[in-house]
Specification:
The protein is 79% helix and 0% strand. With 429 residues, the chain is mostly helical. The chain has one domain.
Length: 429
């Protein structure tokens, strides 16, 4: 009875347009009243869920990404990417993919990525004769790589969601995401090139030589070093994964304010305000989802979901496919953080039962959630890209299939070839 109340109330609140965080909280309160337990349980779980030391990394990683967004790093990265592949057919599209991947790696946020690189590349591509739907699709899909890069705060959120299920280290998850990030980038490059050739987009000049590549790389190198500093510091033991987030902020401030001298006081205030807002939303979701997760564990939701899935099939590859489909569907209606916090306690035990490593499941989860960011009705990355490109979501969706195919290929490789996500963590052991 209580489980029915929880599920029905949560679904109805979402359908009524109530924000996800409040829908989770209100459904938890309704359930606690229906079960006869003291309502203080909800608030105890909320406060306890937010009082985790490793969560200090979330505001720092978010703040570092905002500083890089407003600090002028994007333009230098675009120049470097364009010097590498700008001369091939559809070169601006491929430059866009590389630029988004590199900036996503240092900012760790798909939304910041599409805002920074998209504001530069989408208008430029339209001016050079590329269709707006192509420019937007290339940008929004390439930006999703930031969700599995070392500076992504979603890695921290996933480690919280695994509490009580399995021991997942932040460092292991960071390493597990590197190879899939490369694969996802290659798939995006292939999709961008294939569509460019199919539509007959032109080339743009000749290769300017390795001197130009070296010059552009040198200009962008200070910003790119943040990934090297984070991984090198953690692996060497100089600082922990949590402390690395504060190092990222210090480096971003140093580069944008003192090296590039492109961070104005006005943009610094904007970065602070945006980081505070994002952090508040994420921590609210974490606290409320802790209460929601308590009820799912109390009423054995993972076990019952697993039993239902076993009624369909007990073959691992079928179970993994079903998990991917369900995560994709849920990700289209929920924000990334909410999807991670709600779905990990349900599907991770099932995946582990059929032989999937927790780190592999983490990357599978993050890619699925990232795909949801580019799918209506809650596709925030897609909405920003469409706003920059001055095109409707409907027009973009009509030509999105090749780019969905690229993400789908990467997702299948991560799901069914464990070595892609586990090779590097096992090597570092």
């Amino acid at each position: 009875m209580e489980l029915t109340v929880l599920g029905v109330s949560f679904t109805l609140l979402l359908l009524l347009g109530v924000p996800v965080a409040f829908a989770i909280g209100l459904s938890s309160v309704v359930t606690i009243v229906a079960s006869g337990l003291p309502i203080a349980v909800v608030f105890q779980k909320m406060v306890g869920g937010m009082q985790v030391f490793s969560f200090l990394a979330i505001p720092f990683f978010v703040f570092a990404g905002e500083l890089m967004l407003y600090g002028g790093i994007a333009e230098r990265i675009v120049r470097f990417a364009n010097s590498l592949v700008g001369h091939v057919r559809g070169g601006l599209g491929m430059s866009n993919v590389l630029g988004c991947t590199i900036f996503g790696g240092i900012a760790g946020s798909p939304l910041a990525d599409v805002s920074a690189i998209g504001s530069v590349m989408i208008p430029l591509m339209k001016k050079e004769g590329y269709d707006a739907d192509y420019a937007v699709n290339v940008t929004t899909h390439a930006a999703l790589v930031g969700a599995i890069m070392p500076t992504s705060h979603n890695l921290i959120i996933f480690t919280l969601a695994t509490s009580g299920i399995a021991s997942v280290s932040i460092l292991g998850l960071i390493l597990a995401g590197l190879v899939p990030a490369i694969i996802l980038t290659l798939c995006n490059l292939a999709a961008a090139y294939w569509v460019a050739v199919k539509r007959g987009y032109p080339t743009h000049g000749e290769f300017k030589g390795w001197g130009e590549v070296l010059s552009a790389f040198t200009a962008s190198l200070p910003g790119l070093l943040v990934i090297v500093i984070i991984l090198g510091g953690i692996l060497s033991g100089a600082f922990t994964a949590t402390e690395s987030a504060s190092i990222a902020v210090a480096w971003a401030l140093f580069i944008t304010a003192l090296v590039y001298k492109s961070l104005t006081w006005h943009n610094f205030i904007k970065a602070c305000a945006k980081a505070c807002k994002t952090t508040g939303v994420v921590l609210l979701l974490i606290g409320i989802s802790s209460a929601f997760g308590y009820f799912m564990a109390l009423y054995e939701v993972p076990q019952k979901t697993g039993e239902l899935m076993k009624m369909v099939s007990d073959t691992p590859w079928v179970i993994f496919l079903m998990i991917n489909v369900l995560l994709f569907i849920l990700g289209t209606f929920l924000d990334m953080a909410a999807t991670i916090l709600i779905c990990t306690p349900i599907f991770m035990p099932i995946a582990m039962q059929f032989g999937m490593d927790p780190l592999q499941f983490g990357i599978l989860m993050l890619i699925n959630c990232a795909l949801g960011l580019n799918t209506p009705p809650v596709g925030t990355v897609q909405f920003v890209g469409c706003a920059i490109g001055e095109i409707s979501v409907g027009q973009v969706m009509r030509t999105i299939a090749p780019f969905y195919g690229a993400l789908g290929m990467c997702l299948l490789l991560v799901t069914y070839v464990p070595a892609f996500s586990l090779w590097l963590p096992n090597l570092m052991k």
